Structure prediction request, 691 residues.
Amino acid sequence: MPADELPHQLARTRRFSLGTPSRFTVSPDGDTVFFLRSRAGQDPVSCLWALDVPTGKERLLADPRRLTDPQQEPSGGIVDYAADDACTVLAFTLGGRLWTVRTADGELRRLPVVEPVADPRPDPTGERIAYAGGGALRVVEADGSRDRTLAAPDGPEVCFGRAEQVAAESMGRHRGYWWAPDGRRLLVARVDSTPVQRWYLSDPSDPARPPSAIRYPAAGTANADVSLWIAPVDGPPGSLIRVAWDTAAFEYLTAAGWDGHGPFAAVQSRDQRHVQVCGIEPGTGAITVLAEQRDDAWVQLVPGLPARTGSGALVSTADREDTRRLLVAGRPVTPPGLQVGAVLAVDGHRVLFTASGDDPAETHLWSHDPQRGLRRLSGEPGVHGGTCRGGTTVVTTRSANRHGVRTTVHVDRGEPQPRTRTAEIVSHAELPVLEPRPELLRLGPRAVRAALFLPSWHRPDDGPLPVLVDSYGGPALRKVNAARTWSTYVSQWFAEQGFAVLAVDGRGTPGRGPAWERAIHLDIAGPVLEDQVQGLTEAAALRPQLDLTRVAVRGWSFGGFLAALAVLRRPDVFHAAIAGAPVTDQRLYDTHWRERHLGHPDRYPQAYDRCSPVLEAATLSRPLLLVHGLADDNVIPAHTLRFSAALLAAGRPHEVLPLPRTAHTPSDPTVAANLLTHERDFLRRALRLPG
Prediction:
């Protein structure tokens, strides 16, 4: 297939995610790995599988097509599942219905419960299953009997057992309840969204459809009221015990859990400069502060933390020597220069985590335990992840030399004479129609990381190439990686259309240490744009085929904000821009994410003003295409609409492409594919390039 087929391939493979194994769970003996995967690279229905580690053989546990009406395609299949401690029972939902599978014999059962069901989780003993539904937290026996309510909402905007909007979108906390190890009690979050302002999203392409109401806590406005409660499985109604933390001083619940040493929670102040990790007395709800962390800008939340080892030692991080270091029982166990990214698993005394060293483009898998100390488990350059349990480690690897994710299973039980076995979980992801050819660079005095993509057909004597800056640039992710991701293929596709494509990770992007991340505190515009300009200039000095008289910039979300900012402030450098789903008025973005970087708008109004492109609309002098999904409830369409109105009021020509029935990321295959070709054609027109 020709390279021009890539936009359609990306759409029908959902950016090459279909057929890729994910969501791994290891049994306590390490002999079985459970995972999700569809059957082929264009198959959207994800199934539940089990890998027998000693033999390397796979077993299909649940195929949604066999569990639903034959006339109805199960959209998306099984998107998540949960297991009891022994992995004897797995629970999942299909179309809002609760299903379980017994792993020993593969028996599948649909449980007769109140529907629709969300986030079902077996208790650690496998005797019962909790789930959220109708605003309540409910529990049912594993055989389907005694479906009952544990915590019922006491108001129309109250729910139990679910994460609120900012927790799921900005903190990485997607759960709202946690089982006790004995299965007799739960730690439950109660969310009252009454204080949160109500916004309305409508579909202009369907005027008969009423608008949908959402609760959106925009910067400076009220958050949901979140509290924690201890709920007994068989207690009388109303027997919940409230966890007594100071919710006025610590407005955010960032994480929680329950292990063999009791329940615990991490809470954060509204200004995000203070985090406490608290142990909870389950009989009274009283708390004990186990650890605290403070920072003058913000305390960075690390995925997977807090956690505790089997002995009860607290696993946490601290920013020391400009390094995010891993702490066990308050003692650093990682050296300066190794930046911890996420804790993936804690198995007994062993901690499995990811970290980046001198090169932030690489993320490696590391392990620490008292006997073996600190070890790097991943070898080849790339981006690695995984999980572990019972002496078995699952390692996922994305590299620059191979397409897709390679998933290997390693067994090392630590015997006197170690016998390491390796198995592989096969990926059915489709092979791309083009080969990416990125050159990774370090540019300028700050050594910003960049990736340069040139057309496969270009030769030095072909003449200079117009440049497309294809960056994200924000604190959520790095775009420059020693790995092939879907965005790598998009950049190469634009290169094949006749561009030199450059992605730059400047200040504010993760993986280069606390000072680098916090360089954007109170200004997410100036330092970020400065590094993009410097990266572009330095790249052109190294590679003279980059034509700086024809430079465009494109991006989505934060990248869309950056693209709009680039043509507003530096039209001398950037000659055209495509801004997809851009945040143009920072006061319209959510509390936790935006106040982390810009503070509270009542205290720092100037920070919001200097980072809002809508206030600079009158300076536009270059071609600009704005793209926005009209069903986007993350970066709401008002960002683009207000920006467009300001541009029109200032007499500044621009183009707007609205995407009906499209959320923050286009999911319709036709829309997703044609959007890329529309962007290419706009860039050719804007830079006056031949078709």
In short: The longest helix spans residues 669-686. The mean pLDDT is 95. The chain has eleven helices and 43 strands. The domain at 438-686 is CATH 3.40.50.1820 (Rossmann fold).
